[in-house]
Write a structure and sequence with these properties.
two-stranded antiparallel ribbon, 12% strand, alpha+beta, 316 residues
Length: 316
């Protein structure tokens, strides 16, 4: 087997020794605060009362840089399924929602503990598709996993997850097409739409559960939702009953936030909401949400006005 490690080190612009330090999560005998060898740190995201906290294992700046180079130079050579709409260049939430517009009913399923269920064996088999040596395959696997799992905070993890799900997506997508059902997956959110009779007769939930079980995944039954056209059908936050649009509550929230920023300023708006964020970051976030609203509804004159208003507030 050929030795491609030097080529990989050159491509990633990291000496071979440092690559192995990163891949083994090496720590010096005398721990130094802020050392580059502290490869990961944990971040807990609080979602509020009644919701479970989200735990992220985030790589340090150096490892994150190496992982991004690995993603750009190697992993993007592998293509994900057309049914996978998350974490792909040029794709957005709208791409996931649009195929389900105007359907009689929408079925939404959620994969439990998606990233935590992806172990290093699954990652190893993805890396084998790159056609590198076994030594390089192992190195790539270790560079992209942490404690034998796919870390949710690493830049490589979302795309690797999509590659792991490629065969599943293709098989399920083809099966759905045969049953006149539309299917998309956005990370751990799976959406099915079509006629109520077709979805029920095909026994979609049972089919998906069996396919996921064979891969080591399970469905979160508490998040299974079946929505008829007489109700508001939302797919990844976008209403799809007749055309892609934001919900009234989403528009109302944006309207209120822009109003408070204009009247009281961003700092006071943050205090009112009880957020721990700088005014600059808050305005950037607000502008991003308005930009998304315009992506969903490009002709919305109200949102166009809000976009210009927030831009002007950022420049004051």
């Amino acid at each position: 087997m050929y030795n491609d490690i030097p080529y990989i080190a050159e491509t990633l612009k990291v000496p071979v020794g440092k690559l192995y330090m990163l891949s083994n999560n090496y720590k010096p005998r005398k721990k130094r605060q802020g050392s580059i060898y502290e490869n990961y740190h944990t971040i807990v995201i609080h979602h509020g009362r009644g919701h479970k906290n989200r735990i992220l294992n985030v790589p340090n700046a150096f490892l994150k840089l190496v992982q991004r180079r690995l993603l750009d130079n190697f992993l993007y050579q592998l293509k994900v399924s057309e049914y996978s709409t998350a974490y792909c260049k040029g794709n957005s939430l709208l791409d996931n929602a649009a195929p389900h517009v105007g359907k009689e009913c929408v079925l939404k399923l959620d994969i439990s503990h998606f990233f935590d269920s992806i172990d290093d064996d699954k990652v190893f088999f993805v890396m084998k598709r790159l056609g590198v040596s076994i030594t390089a395959t192992v190195l790539f696997t270790h560079l992209c996993t942490y404690k034998g799992k796919l870390p949710q905070g690493a830049p490589t993890s979302p795309y690797i997850a999509n590659l792991i799900m490629k065969q599943f997506d293709e098989k399920l997508g083809n099966w759905c097409s045969e049953h006149n059902i539309t299917y998309t997956r956005y990370c751990d959110d799976m959406t099915f739409s079509g006629y109520k009779a077709d979805i029920h007769s095909a026994k979609v939930v049972g089919k998906v559960k069996r396919m996921l079980y064979r891969m080591g995944f399970t469905i979160n039954d508490k998040k299974t939702v079946f929505i008829s056209s007489s109700q508001q059908q939302r797919v990844t936050g976008i209403v799809v009953n007749e055309k892609p649009t934001l919900s009234r509550s989403q528009k109302r929230t944006l309207r209120q936030e822009v109003y408070y920023c204009q009247k009281y300023g961003a700092a006071e708006s943050i205090n009112r909401k009880g957020l721990d964020i700088s005014p600059d970051k808050y305005l950037h976030s607000l502008l991003g949400r308005i930009a998304f609203a315009l992506q969903v509804e490009p002709d919305n004159s109200e949102m166009k006005e809000y976009f210009e208003t927030v831009k002007s507030l950022m420049n004051t």
